[in-house]
Predict the structure.
Amino acid sequence: MNPLNHVAIIMDGNGRWGLKNKNSRNAGHKAGLITVEKIIKETIKNKIGYLTLFAFSTENWKRPKKEINYLFNLLENFLVNKIEDLHKQNIRLKILGLKKFSRKLNKLLNNSEKKTSKNTRLQINLALNYGSKSELISAFKKIQTTKTKINEKNLNRYLQTKNIPDPDILIRTGNTKRLSNFLLWQLAYSEIFFEKKLWPAFNEKDYNRIIKEYKKIKRNFGKI
Ligand code: IPE
Ligand code: IPE
Ligand code: MG
């Protein structure tokens, strides 16, 4: 049975779910947040140490302002209402991506990270304004300015995922088979599960089915 330390998820399909069920993309984002809470609970139950959630990409700024504002409001409210609860559950929150939001949200994110930084039960990495290409470019720039050798170990040190093991599993919901600029380096050997269901419809049962399937996979890492 494969050990499972890290699950990464591209939470896709909120907009389509919202349009289909509530005639509004934003209603899909709201419903998607309920799935996030379910999956956090189930991750703890499965004793998985790291959960990385792709919530907003560097490319998502191309969306209408109304949708972007709605998404960040949702996030703000979630943090205000839930960070104490996450902290009590010994959960650490870490942001991947560049914190270039409103002053209020930047502060809230920094405070949430700081408050929970010593927690050990589960680390949630929230990828927000995250893009893998820009992460890699920054890492190479740091290597260049510090004149360190270009090798895997040094590159890992300058990525935002420093000290985080690579994902064992990548799940993408929403019936689309692409990576959309997510963790391109870190996913080199992950087991990938593309799910037809839209994110708000994804549930504990689907998650546990994937975990069960993953555990049985013969992971070769180049060997036979
Ligand atoms: C993913 O759902 C969530 C974000 C990118 C914020 P989408 O909003 O991309 O939903 P679809 O793919 O349009 O249905
Ligand atoms: C990927 O979903 C980003 C997140 C889930 C946050 P998108 O819906 O933005 O991806 P594309 O644009 O369809 O590839
Ligand atoms: Mg999408």
